[in-house]
Amino acid sequence: MLKCINVKELKRLHLDESKSLGIMRLDWSGSRIDEVCNQWYPSQQFDEVITKYDISIQSLQEGLNELIFNQLNVFNQVIEQCGGEGYSYEQTFKVETSDFNFFIRLKPVRGEYSHIFVYYR
Q: Residues 6 or more apart from 111 whose CB is under 8 A from it?
């Protein structure tokens, strides 16, 4: 299980836009009620970053799958992670792996999108 750190606890985020891989959009209002649906939006420099840093697509997919399908797969897990339901409970978390930084903006509101911003470390 990957450890989520609330960005409020961090002094620096260490965002490097030149290493952006893309954004995974999440919602829990799809055809499977309360279960996660997702869509990937690669960054403009996705191919360049993958090539420059010799990134394994499988490793990227495994990291995203762990977050999406094991830690955030049902809406109740989002509510629990954020400490409540509603716009006032929106939170942003950072998850680090050996290769990637995932910034997860969770909106515990039914019908709203949450996002995972993916950067190469």
A: 27, 29
Backbone angles phi, psi at 16, to 5 degrees: -125, 100
Neighbouring residues of 89: CB distance < 8 A, sequence distance ≥ 6: 79, 82, 83, 108
Provide the 3-class DSSP secondary structure of residue 91.
strand
Tell me, what's the pLDDT at 111? 87
Cα Rg for the chain, rounded, in angstroms?
Answer: 14
In tens, the pLDDT along 21-75 reads 999 999 988 767 778 899 999 999 999 999 999 999 999 999 999 999 999 988 9
Asked if residues 41 and 23 have their Cβ atoms less than 8 Å apart, the reply is: yes
Alpha-carbon distances of 59 from 55, 86, 89, 90, rounded to whole Å = 8, 33, 31, 28
Nearest to 105 by CA among 63, 55, 67: 67
- Overall pTM > 0.85: yes
DSSP 57-68: HHHHHHHHHIII
